[in-house]
Amino acid sequence: MPEAKPKITVKPQSSVFTGDTVTLSCDVGLSTGQKIIWYKDIDRTAGFETQTLRDVNVSDGGKYACAEIGKTTVSQALVLAVRERPKPVVRVHPDGRVFKGQTVTLTCDIQETDVSSWNYSWKKDDSVIHVSQSQVYRISSVHESHTGHYSCTGNETQGSRYSHISDKVTLSVSGSDGQLPILSVFKLVSFLLAASLYLLVTIILGVKCYRAHVQNDEIDQYAVIEK
């Protein structure tokens, strides 16, 4: 009677990030509590039916297989892929000074992964404020209360993987709506009027001085002629 072929399984999944915990199980049928030979690439070690890899790193990735000690049938190989845990980058638009009433868009950018879909979690000052499958978080008509430090993380929609938390970005909202306050406008108009009046007076005085100088010259010329 041919030997039953062991079956190897992995939890939570075969593609993980560094720092995750992975459990490999070798099902050898009715035999339980038996010693198992574990194969990783070209290496082999003895162990039990369940093997837990904690805080995995990239070097833990590879082809795994198993067989019951004393048996020749080896399970089908299972490929474990370990990738560096990604760190999102938050981009803000507009990225300069933001005024009350404007619309602000924050984007959580996660690159270099094989994750097809993320749930994005947004924090403001370390408190969760928004969760969505869209990487864009839009704040319409911002006001002063939106001022704070924002960050994001990603959690795999159909899996167990998650990203690092991004660096925080600071959003500062000015109390003005981008227009000059009425008092500032009044001061500006007053200054321009005062400057215009000063310039006008200066021109008038200059003209009068010039005319007086011309008249004095004419008087002096007549005085010379009469002599």
UniProtKB/TrEMBL annotation:
Keywords from the UniProt entry: Disulfide bond, Membrane, Receptor, Signal, Transmembrane, Transmembrane helix
Domain Ig-like, chain residue ranges per copy: 6-66, 86-172
Transmembrane segments: 188-207
Gene3D superfamilies: Immunoglobulins
PANTHER family recorded: IG-LIKE DOMAIN-CONTAINING PROTEIN (PTHR11481:SF60), IMMUNOGLOBULIN FC RECEPTOR (PTHR11481)
Name listed for the protein in its UniProt record: B-cell receptor CD22
Higher taxonomy: Eukaryota, Metazoa, Chordata, Craniata, Vertebrata
